[in-house]
Request: fold
Amino acid sequence: MNFKMIHENYNVADLEVSEKFYEKALGLTEKRRINGEGFVIAYLGNEQSDFELELTCLEEHPQKYDLGECEFHLAFRVDDFDAAHQLHKEMGCICFENPEMGIYFIADPDGYWLEIVPAGK
Reply:
């Protein structure tokens, strides 16, 4: 059997705010959408991979989710680490840096952590 990862799901409080963040911070755009009764699911992606980020917004849950200790993250490799770091610094979304490992993390509007890794790591 062969398994292929196809998406990661994050529940978000405001889909529009989240989509704007992911497009500006990581170049992800909506690929498809499901409008259901009481929920909307948007699948975001880019041309670098067929892996998608699934954002789910529930009408009855407009507040941010309790992420516990936030000991999970999705990682992105970037070809221009310095330019990405500058963009994220300007956006004010860097939440943790680890210079020894040469990586940093950004937080999305709901508090999900996203690791930024330079090419070659």
Summary: DSSP finds two helices and eight strands in the chain. Residues 17 and 46 are 18 Å apart (CA to CA). The first strand starts at residue 7 and ends at 11. The mean pLDDT is 93.
